[in-house]
Design brief:
heterodimer, A: Beta Polymerase, domain 2, two-stranded parallel sheet, 29% strand, B: alpha+beta, Cytochrome-c3 Hydrogenase, chain B, three-stranded antiparallel beta sheet, 17 helices, globular
Chain lengths: 159, 391
C-alpha cells in the first residue's frame, strides 16, 4: 500500500487521531495525537498490507519558542513493501510524556532512552527509562534549545 | 559439607582491548556462563548533534567524518545526499561515480579493520597484520585522491571536493586487481580452520524475525537471511547503474556474519572495477553559484570571485524550510540523517541514526547463555565503532 493510502486508512480506522499529513520530497508524514499511539503503531506493524516491521528511529525536535515545544518523531520502514512513513507527535513542555512503543518494536528501547536523556521527554510504559549517553547523575537535558552549547557553569568553568 | 553457588558480577570496563573502543559491560555470570549483560555507553559522546545546530551545512561535513572514523567516505555521502535532497540539487554523473568509488574503497577499508580486529580477538593474530598491510595501501590511495588518509571529508554538498587524477585511476585499478589474491590469503588462514569454526559456529544466533524487531541493519541483518540492502532497496549515487549481488546468510550466527562480509569484499571490488571502466568525463561538482565554491584559480585572480568564495565559506547557504530523512548503506548498516531546516544556514535539528548504536542493543540478547569468551566473538561480529555509538 502506498504511504498516502496508509495515512488515509489510519484516518479512517482511528477517527480523530490524525491531525494533519502531507508529502514532501517524496516522503510522507502524519501528525498524530498521542493518546492511542501504541495502538496505532501496533496496527501499522501487524496489518499485512502495511507491515511496518522495521522501526528506523525515534527522536524529538525542540521548536522553542514555537508551541507546542517538542515533537516526537517516528521513522519506520516496511521491508516487504519497501516504503517509509514518518509519524510526528507534538507534546508540550509541561506535560512532556508520550506512550512508549517499546512493546511494539524491541528496538525502540534505546531510542526512547536517548530521547529521554537528551530532551527530557518521558515514555510511559518503558521497561527501564534511564540515561544512556550522559552520566547517570547528570542534571539537565543537553539537546534542549535553552541548554548552553558549552555546558552549564560549574566550579571549574565559571563563564 | 554443602557447596553453595552464587552469581558473580564482573565489569568489562571501558578500557579493554576487545571491546573495540570505550564500551563498558556489566556482566552477571553463573560460573563461566553469562546470565545478563548490560552495556553502558556515552564514554565517547561528543555532542555532535548539538554542535551541528551551530555550524553551517558545509561545516558539518568534517563532523560526519568522525562518526564511523573507519569509513569516512560513506558518512559524508549519507549526509550530503540528505541535504541535497532537501535542497533539490542534482550532482553531475562523474561526481556520482567518484562518490561510489570512495564509498566502496571506504567499505573495503572498514571491513579490513573489522576482519583484523575480529580475528585478533578470537586468536588469529596473523590475520591482523595481513589486513593492516592492505589497509596501508588503501590509506595511501585516499591520500592521493583526497589529501587525507583517514578523515577524508571528500564528499561535499553539490559534488566532491577534488577531481580524480589519471594517476589515482591507475593505482586504484592496480589495487582492485591485486586484492582478490590477498583475500584468498586471509581465507586460507581462517575460513576452514577448526578453531575458528568452533568459536564462531552456533554462537550469537539471531533468527530472521527477531533481527528485524531489533532494528538490525547491515551485515548483522543479512547474516540472518533478511534481504535488505539500501543500495538495492532505495538506490542512491550511481548504484542503480551498477551490477552487484548482496550476500545473505542463513543461520544468523557469528560465522554467517563473517562469511557474508568476506563476500562483500568481492562485491565491492566488482563495483570498483565497473566504476573505473564506466566513469564519464565532466564536472566533478554541480555548478550552482549559491552553494558550490568557485574554481580556485579564479578565486586567486579575480576580486569578485574572492568575495563570492569568502561569503560562501563564512556565512554558508540557506536551505529551504522542511525536513527529510535519508539513509545510506555504510559498512556497519543504515546510517541515516534526519534533518529539520527552518530556512537558515544551520539545521534546526540533525539526528544521526547510527547503525552501531542500534545493533549494539542486540548484544545482551545475543550473549545470553554463552560463555565469557563468546562475548568477544559477538561484539566483533556486530562490528561496532564507538564513535558512531556515542556520536
Amino acid at each position: 500500500m502506498e504511504p498516502e493510502k496508509i495515512i488515509e486508512l489510519l484516518g479512517q480506522k482511528f477517527e480523530g487521531e490524525v491531525l494533519s499529513s502531507g508529502t514532501d520530497h517524496g516522503q510522507t508524514w502524519a501528525v498524530l495525537k498521542r493518546d492511542r499511539l501504541a495502538d496505532i503503531c501496533r496496527f501499522l506493524k501487524d496489518e499485512p498490507d502495511i507491515k511496518m516491521d522495521y522501526l528506523i528511529d525515534v527522536t524529538a525536535v525542540d521548536w522553542l519558542p514555537k508551541m507546542p515545544r517538542f515533537e516526537v518523531v517516528y521513522n519506520m520502514h516496511s521491508i516487504k513493501h519497501n516504503n517509509r512513513i514518518r509519524l510526528k507527535v507534538p507534546v508540550t513542555e509541561e506535560d512532556a510524556s508520550v506512550p512508549s512503543v517499546a512493546g511494539v518494536w524491541k528496538t525502540a528501547d534505546w531510542h526512547e532512552r536517548e530521547t529521554f536523556d537528551l530532551f527530557g521527554i518521558t515514555f510511559e510504559g518503558h521497561p527501564d527509562l534511564r540515561r544512556i549517553l550522559m552520566p547517570e547523575d547528570w542534571e539537565g537535558h543537553p539537546l534542549r534549545k535553552d541548554y548552553p552549547l558549552e555546558g552549564p557553569k560549574w566550579e571549574f568553568k565559571p563563564w | 559439607m554443602a557447596v553453595t553457588t552464587k552469581e558473580i558480577t564482573i565489569n568489562m570496563g571501558p578500557q579493554h582491548p576487545s571491546t573495540h573502543g570505550v564500551l563498558r559491560l556489566i556482566l552477571e555470570l553463573d560460573g563461566e556462563t553469562v546470565v545478563s549483560c548490560k552495556p553502558y555507553l556515552g564514554y565517547l559522546h561528543r555532542g555532535s548533534e548539538k554542535l551541528a545546530e551551530n555550524r553551517t551545512y558545509q561545516q558539518i561535513v568534517p563532523l560526519t567524518d568522525r562518526f564511523d572514523y573507519l569509513s569516512c567516505g560513506n558518512n559524508n555521502l549519507s549526509y550530503a545526499i540528505a541535504v541535497e535532497k532537501l535542497m533539490g540539487i542534482e550532482v553531475p554523473e562523474r561526481a556520482d561515480y567518484l562518490r561510489v568509488i570512495v564509498s566502496e574503497l571506504s567499505r573495503i577499508s572498514s571491513h579490513l579493520l573489522w576482519l583484523a580486529t575480529h580475528a585478533a580477538d578470537i586468536g588469529a593474530v596473523t590475520v591482523l597484520l595481513y589486513c593492516l598491510r592492505e589497509r596501508e595501501e588503501l590509506l595511501g590511495l585516499f591520500e592521493l585522491l583526497t589529501g587525507a588518509r583517514l578523515t577524508v571529508s571528500y564528499v561535499n554538498i553539490g559534488g566532491v571536493r577534488r577531481d580524480a587524477t589519471p594517476e589515482f585511476m591507475a593505482r586504484c585499478k592496480e589495487f582492485a586487481d591485486a586484492f582478490p589474491a590477498h583475500l584468498e590469503e586471509y581465507n586460507t588462514l581462517i575460513m576452514q580452520n577448526r578453531i575458528w569454526l568452533g568459536r564462531t559456529k552456533g554462537i550469537g544466533i539471531i533468527p530472521y524475525d527477531e533481527a528485524i524487531e531489533w532494528g538490525l541493519t547491515g551485515g548483522s541483518l543479512r547474516g540472518s537471511g533478511v534481504n535488505y540492502d539500501l543500495r538495492k532497496a532505495i538506490p542512491y549515487a550511481a548504484y542503480d547503474k551498477l551490477d552487484f549481488d548482496v550476500p545473505l546468510g542463513e543461520a544468523g550466527d557469528v560465522y554467517d556474519r563473517y562469511i557474508i562480509r568476506i563476500e562483500e569484499f568481492r562485491q565491492s571490488i566488482r563495483i570498483i572495477q565497473q566504476c573505473l571502466k564506466d566513469i564519464p568525463d565532466g564536472p566533478y561538482k554541480a555548478d550552482i553559484p549559491t552553494v558550490t565554491l568557485p574554481a580556485k584559480d579564479k578565486v586567486m585572480a579575480d576580486i569578485e570571485t574572492l568575495v563570492h568564495h569568502f561569503v560562501l565559506v563564512s556565512k554558508g547557504f540557506a536551505v529551504p524550510k522542511g525536513e527529510i530523512y535519508v539513509g545510506c548503506e555504510v559498512p556497519k548498516g543504515e546510517l541515516g540523517f534526519y534533518i529539520v531546516s527552518d530556512g537558515g544556514a544551520s539545521p534546526l535539528r540533525m539526528k544521526v541514526r547510527s547503525p552501531s548504536f542500534v545493533n549494539l542493543q542486540c548484544l545482551p540478547r545475543m550473549v545470553k547463555g554463552h560463555m565469557i569468551a563468546d562475548i568477544v566473538s559477538c561484539i566483533g561480529s556486530i562490528d561496532i565503532v564507538l564513535g558512531e555509538v556515542d556520536r
